[in-house]
Amino acid sequence: MPPATVKSAYLAGIRDGAPFIFMVVPFALLFGVVATEAGLTIGQVMGFTVLVIAGASQFAALQMIVEQAGIILILLAALAVNLRMAMYSASLVPYLGAAPLWQRAFAAYFLFDQPYIVSIAKFEIAQMTVRERMAYYFGTATPITPFWISMSYVGALLGASFPPEYALDFALPIAFIAMVAPMMRTLAHVMAAFTSVIVSLALVSLPSGFGLLIAAVCAMVAGVIVEIWQEKRA
Amino acid sequence: MTDAQIWTVILLLGAGTYLIRFSFLGLIGNRPMPEIVLRFLRYTPVAVLPGMVAPLVLWPAATNGDPDPARLMAALVTVLVGLWRKNVLLAILAGGVTLAIGLFATGQV
Question: Between B5, B13, B44, which is nearest A91 by CB?
Answer without folding.
Answer: B44
